Amino acid sequence: xxxxxxxxxxxxxxxxxxxxxxxxxxxxxxxxxxxxxxxxxxxxxxxxxxxxxxxxxxxxxxxxxxxxxxxxxxxxxxxxxxxxxxxxxxxxxxxxxxxxxxxxxxxxxxxxxxxxxxxxxxxxxxxxxxxxxxxxxxxxxxxxxxxxxxxxxxxxxxxxxxxxxxxxxxxxxxxxxxxxxxxxxxxxxxxxxxxxxxxxxxxxxxxxxxxxxxxxxxxxxxxx
Length: 224
Hints:
Blueprint: E1 2-10, E2 13-21, E3 28-33, H1 43-54, E4 58-62, H2 69-84, E5 93-99, H3 101-114, E6 123-129, H4 145-149, E7 154-159, H5 167-176, E8 181-186, H6 200-223
Parallel strand pairs: 3-4, 3-5, 5-6, 6-7, 7-8
Antiparallel strand pairs: 1-2, 2-4
Helix pairs in contact: 1-6, 2-3
């Protein structure tokens, strides 16, 4: 697969983004962004993008700094719009994905898009890597409102020892969601997906294969 750098118009600014392009013409894509720190070159995102492209799924990762979820959700929408109108990649649909705060922004963007009249099935689902369900030690402050409104399929990949995502709390939210959802727990991983005694590559391989198999299932359901 190869990479293409692009600038995506966003208001009077532009967002830096990189396409990881599969060898064969892709039908589906994943748009992914980073957490509160870092940018689109965060190693986990680079690893995921390469893995998806090698399996025939286009991946567009972008950088949007700023710690405001609403601002980030707006950026997500600009990127989706850009992809929709792209003549180079005529996709049947995209999945939105994010790491940590990026997954909150993705969830928020999906809610906004689904509440608009021109919702045309372009958004296929949501992938949340280390969804920050609550601030550390503040389990009473659940950030679940967007999750409860979403109706497209959702995959959560979370560390079983994530200090911002208590296992029982996420399972409780998942059971209340109207969207079909799946939780994949990474054993002993913290919020940054670090696991004692395992290399980052090893953990990423597990995450990437979980994400790809879930995407594949959902894409196959669409194609039946």
